[in-house]
Amino acid sequence: MKKSFYIHHLIISALTLTVLFSGCSKKSALPPQSKICMDTVCSINAFDYGTEELYADIFKRLDEIEKVFSPTLHDSEVCKINRMAGISPVEVSEDFLTVLSTAQKISRITKGALDVTAGPLIDLWGINTDHQKIPTSKEIEAAKEFVGYEKIQVDGNNVFLPVAGMSFNFGAVVKGYAADEIVSIMKRHRVKRAIIDLGGNIYAFGRKADNIPWVIGIKNPKNPNGNPMLKVYVKNSSIVTSGNYERYFEQNGKRYHHILNTETGMPAERGVYSVTIICKKSIVADCLSTASFILGAERTYDVISTIEKEFKTTIGCVFIYPDNRWGHFGKIKVMPY
Prior knowledge:
Layout (H helix, E strand, L loop, with lengths): L4 E5 L7 E4 L12 E5 L2 E6 L6 H18 L7 H7 L6 E2 L2 H16 L9 H7 L11 H8 L8 E3 L2 E3 L13 H15 L4 E6 L2 E6 L7 E7 L2 E12 L2 E7 L4 E4 L2 E4 L2 E2 L4 E2 L6 E6 L2 H14 L1 H15 L3 E6 L4 E5 L3 E4 L1
Antiparallel strand pairs: 1-19, 2-10, 3-4, 4-8, 5-7, 6-7, 8-9, 9-12, 10-11, 11-20, 12-17, 13-14, 15-16, 17-18, 18-19
Helix pairs in contact: 1-6, 3-7, 6-7, 7-8
């Protein structure tokens, strides 16, 4: 992969995702449909292909996925495995094995920047809960003892966390998998174009009615409710962003965000405000957006070609920095808004 890493200066500064619909077909059999699932609002707009059967199939599939990966549903597979950590393996579904396999591959390639066993650290910080806090260094070191993707044991359809106190958290993975599953449903229903929005994880399916690419806005991390900072042109691609402005709390003038570096046990600090990944495989985009925020731009570039080969896909990255700059690499078209 030839290095092509562009840095740009802007007067305004950085991100979140929005879909810019100008020139897009407005009519549809049914209006866009939404449902709260996986702790977020999941919205689907199939435009003129939006039938009751299509939306029913999609939301049924999202319910199935939530029942596997929810960290709060008592009978989910994730909760069962977490309860049985250090006790015995748990038989899991193909959904679980597929997602875990992808996460483990990206964990190995990124040397643990993505780690689905980060549950103990996530629970310790409690960001966006009623018990969020800055843990002590002693508490962080203790929690890190229960974290480590390399400890996961898989034997056929059985998964085991061998140390009592370990726990899975697939928050950085599962929405990407869900988007890919929705794309499969769209194809079975012969949908030509759609926008899938799973709490900010966007999948732009097909092309717009005028046969041109979708235009997705990348918002400003310092003002996520304002105008987009950038626009990216895509077709049949997932667009996933991770940033320090999404979930956080502030104390003594310092922001503590939810993307934790399992090596330090602290919120990641790599000199970026947000990372957007563009990829046809949404689960890869979801995993890599988190990992890239932790790795930073240069280290992300070092692993991109390996991930592309492993998953037989292409990847584009957009980084936004605190000093009004943005950079990108990969075969993507990005412009100021």
